[in-house]
């Protein structure tokens, strides 16, 4: 059996395979109240049905101002948690594990959905003033307000409170979003963190917020459930956050009870020069796995079953995450099983769909 279809255990969680759905914002909350909708049930549910081992929700804000767009989901109140419980329950019924990505967009908050231009949404139109480590705007976005120490404390507490709700909703794991130029990454990178207090300057200070969030979440999140963290391995800009720092902080994270590091890159600075190609971030996952000794997920243009299997065979990562390929093909794991010679019986088809199984 190709190892893509091997179970993987993280603490008390056993996931049926190593093909996981990456977090993907849907901008589908028309009511702008952060409550996930039928869209999220069907979108995530289809991919759990399609054989993904673990299904991550999109970036889910821990406070209203932490949303990217007014149409983002959240986990800052119980109405949202109740709606998530229905979705997590459906994912479980389909045999998938359920993960929620907890997020705060920082200075990249209050913008329209990509298909509406990703341009700033003014408070009069349902937007808000964004917060950040420093009053330095991303690209041509509105200048954010620099957080004071009390504001930072509130955000740490909000991550913990969201984790409590996520647990009550039945999620098996949380992924703390520390990548793509959102709030935590804004603290990590010297390009966006210009602070002169205990949260800025040295590596120790820039990583303080992330480590405080991990500590706060770990205190309330059940011992038996894993915690994941997504990091951008590099800013792809001279003078930014580096792969070496990613490996170093990953080692600290592992020591503080983080079970998996999901290794992405970029998103912090529009000057980024990303060298895009198949599996372009896989070498970063390998470096983190080797240097930090932590379980890792690789993501980024992993589209072909044989390619995905090679990532595991080569020891680059422990699991693969798919995003765009899963949008066009919700049952990608079924095709992967077929192409890699896994019998349909082992490919997580629901009995209702057995007659449609790929067969040689
Ligand atoms: C529609 C869409 C929405 C995304 N939203 C998120 C998100 O909410 N959180 C996140 O960490 N990454 C997000 N990403 C990035 C993906 O998780 C993934 O890292 C990236 O697309 C590269 O993987 P791929 O080549 O398989 O698409 C998004 C990507 C897409 C295509």
TrEMBL record:
Keyword Oxidoreductase part of the UniProt annotation: yes
Coiled-coil features, chain-numbered ranges: none
Superkingdom of the organism of origin: Bacteria
Keywords: Flavoprotein, FMN, NADP, Oxidoreductase
InterPro entries, sorted: Aldolase_TIM, OxRdtase_FMN_N, YqjM-like
Domain spans labelled NADH:flavin oxidoreductase/NADH oxidase N-terminal: 4-340
Record flagged with keyword Cell membrane: no
Pfam families named in the record: Oxidored_FMN
One annotated GO molecular function: NADP binding
Cofactor(s) listed in the protein's UniProt record: FMN
Record-linked PANTHER family: NADPH DEHYDROGENASE C23G7.10C-RELATED
Protein name as it appears in the record: Oxidoreductase
Organism encoding this protein: Pseudonocardia sulfidoxydans NBRC 16205
